[in-house]
User: Fold this.
Amino acid sequence: MRRLDSRTAALAVVLLVLGATAAWSQSRHAMRGMVLAVDRNGTGIVVSHDAVPGVMAAMTMPFEVRDPRELAGVVPGMTVTFTLVLGDNGALAERVRIERYATAEQDPLTARRLRLLQNTAGGGRPESASPPLAAGQMVPDVALLDQARRRVVLSQFRGQVVVVNFIYTSCALPQFCFRVANHFGVIQRRFKDRLRKDLTLVTVTFDPVRDQPETLAEYARQWTADADGWRFLTGPVTEIQRMTSLFGVDAFPDEGLMNHSVRTALVDRQGRLVANIEGNLHTAAQLGDLVHTALAR
Assistant:
């Protein structure tokens, strides 16, 4: 990634977007959005931010920071809040804070509690399972089957950007599996010309006993999924558990349904993990902006 624009240039962009005049000098605005990129020198970030009512529409913009320590621990895919300061010396992001995913909704909260109980009881993750991947690590191959019973490993998409999410087809709550699948539906439409060439979408079930390839094929038809550009994967329970462990996904059966966490991951062209987004609070547009950033590299 190239170094972000100078403070003067950033201020000019912001003022142009706002249609502002000198009256904006020394103004402060609360901002929130998804991080798309972090400057290699630690001097700024690119954010797909929410709209600020009466100030600016939702968009993607670069923001510099006064102190590089503000960006400690910040990686692409994270949601951050910060204060945008517009003044005579430029536009700066101050008080950058990582917004950790927190929810009172039953499925992810119960899954988190069950994982904690399992770990406390000495169960933990299986010894054969890898720890969750960190940003920058290579994603190892797990052999699974897609909706057409074709063998799939992520390394076969090397040279493409790969986006991975996790669902089960019996999910009854629209804010979880339906929402993340709908995000992929939006991504498929937005990047229709890049699908299969530069971009592949991968949806993995964590309920492989019921979600056989034929079930996933029917689910894929509901989303008018491109058979080659959007793969729906299942496989042996042990391999699915290995796949979910790699990305920190927890899922526990509960009276025919599943209590589960929510994760969406992005893998770069070299097979390295770029982002592992927890939760369902980001928008399809923000996920699309993250994909666009990865494709542009």
